[in-house]
Amino acid sequence: MQKVKVAEAVAEKIGVSPQTAVGLIESVIDTLKQRLRTGETVKIPRFGSFSVRAKRARIGRNPRTGVAAEITARRVVTFHPSRVFREMVNNTQAPVPSLEE
Fold first, then answer.
1. How far apart, in whole angstroms, are the C-alpha atoms of residue 6 and residue 10?
2. Please, is 30 exposed, middle or buried when counting C-beta atoms within 10 Å of its C-beta (0-12, 13-18, 19+)?
3. Confidence label for 35 from pLDDT (cuts 50, 70 and 90)
4. Which of 21, 64, 72, 88 could make an S-S bridge to 11, C-beta 3.0–4.6 Å?
């Protein structure tokens, strides 16, 4: 699903214009990026948590040629879904919990 479709669904659900919904989504995404850039963990109840993890430098191998190459150290973003979110995704028969609950 593309961001525009998400914005349309949000706009319809909360009764705002699609442009306002896009602005809201952009604000949330920008906030997530800013917090993760500083190394902070972002927890969203009933959805999951985003965190940054440091990976050390290592030697990898090109699967096609078999040539060894160094993979530089870097930071990666990880997402850990909440138990509620995992159960909802795995149980397609269960109703999707709303924000009002």
1. 6
2. exposed
3. very high
4. 21
Return the percentage of the chain with pLDDT > 70, whole number.
90
Phi-psi region of 81 (alpha: psi -120 to 50; beta: other; left: phi over 0): beta
CB 70 within 8 A of CB 42: no
Say yes or no to pLDDT of 101 above 60: no
Q: CATH classification of 40-101 is 4.10.520.10, yes or no?
A: yes
Q: Which two tokens stand for residue 27?
A: 């604000």
* Assigned token pair, 43: 């927890």
Tokens 């972002």: give the residue: 42
Cα–Cα nearest to 42, from 34, 54, 50:
50
pLDDT tens digits for 37-59?
999 999 999 999 999 999 999 99
